[in-house]
Design a protein that fits this description.
The chain has 161 residues and is mainly α. The protein has 2 domains: 34 residues, no CATH class; 117 residues. It has 7 helices and no strands.
Length: 161
Amino acid sequence: MTLNLAQVDWIGTTILPFLTSLLGAGFLGWGRAVRTNPAKLRGGLNGLAVVSLAGPFSNVIMAVILAVLAVATLSAIPALAQFLAHGVELSLYLAIINMLPVPPLDGSKLLLAARVPAVVYVELSSFGFMLLIVLISVTRLGILMSDWSYLGTRAIFSLLH
């Protein structure tokens, strides 16, 4: 895990999210992929599976932290609490989307851990981003992920009340 700016892609992490938010087009962005060498991991490809779960797990932890802050600020600063509650849902959505087995997402490393041939993985990664856009916009996958993040948000807040 890095605490520096290793994943910051200046266009995808700063400029595009700022512009899409400013223009009311949602919030679109990405981070730079960080290389992971399975040979240096304890457990090799099985260790890669654990690493691939770290990103989505950190999104869930962030969601819980934001929910705690939302509950703590609800009576004093309701607008901030509402903003934080939206952050909970967004963090859970990111956790879900990151688990999809489509390169360059974290879940794609599970394909390698499942011993999918590297040739197949490389081929999939050449059009992975386009596949992701098609899956989310043409199928019900985007709606399902949104529903799951909403239900997860409700579950977290029900545990805190």
